[in-house]
Amino acid sequence: MRILVVEDEVKVLNFIRKGLQENAYTVDTASDGEEGLFLAEENEYDCIVLDIMLPKVDGYQIIRTLRSKRIKTPVIFLTAKDTVSDRVKGLDYGADDYLVKPFAFAELLARIKALVRREKDKPQDVLGVADLTMNLLQHKVQRGTTVVELTPKEFALLRYFMEHCGQVLTRTMISENVWGYNFDSMTNVIDVHINSLREKIDKGFDQKLIHTVRGVGYVFEQR
Ligand code: CA
Questions:
Q1: Measured CA distances, 72 to 14, 66, 127 (Å)
Q2: How many Å apart are CA 140 and CA 150, to the nearest integer?
Q3: Cis before residue 123, ω within 30 degrees of 0?
Q4: What is the 131 CA–ligand 1 centroid distance (Å)?
Q5: What pTM value is reported for the model?
Q6: Which of 208, 216, 172 lies closest to 190 in space, CA to CA?
Q7: Cα dihedral across residues 68, 111, 37, 55: positive or negative
Q8: How many angstroms separate the alpha carbon of residue 13 from the centre of ligand 1?
Q9: Residue 7 C-alpha to ligand 1 middle, in angstroms?
Q10: 82-97: pLDDT as tens digits
Q11: What would the pLDDT profile of 59-78 be if each residue is shown by its tens digit?
Q12: What spacing in Å lies between the alpha carbon of 58 and ligand 1's midpoint?
């Protein structure tokens, strides 16, 4: 776990760094906004602890710049001013959480852990297997450069396959997870949908992604 701390007050910076290091985090630090922004853009962090009032570039500007460049690292901002407008401004600019100074280290640690966990649990926006990609936000599927039009059911089915790439999926698992219920007469419905999905994403491509496991079900993978 790697954390960036941007803070110009030496005492506060050392206090945070020491606490994080004692909890086995790797810590990078910056004491002005310019250096902080540079590090945040250059490296991958699990979380950034960001003071607002900083020399050269302030914390608001840093968050805005990062978000405009689609750097989505979770940011906790530190604010000395406990006014509603300051907090709202930071969150509006794309910060994930805030802490009002002075704070207890345990509080900061708990917030960092919660943010990192939330980030890990977040579903991915784009799934990819071989040259097939699924953009969940845009509801768009592409095989190579070919855009594939899917029905909502086919889309749900493909998503389930892609999220369980390499696992053997029985028809029972597929019907429970994609249709939300399971009964024997579903078998045919599933096979019909899988055949139509195959037509759309595998037909005409050398590398097939949907494979039948005889007597068991299906596996989705690059072979
Ligand atoms: Ca400051």
A1: 26, 7, 17
A2: 9
A3: no
A4: 47
A5: 0.61
A6: 172
A7: positive
A8: 10
A9: 6
A10: 677 777 788 888 889 9
A11: 999 999 998 888 889 999 99
A12: 9
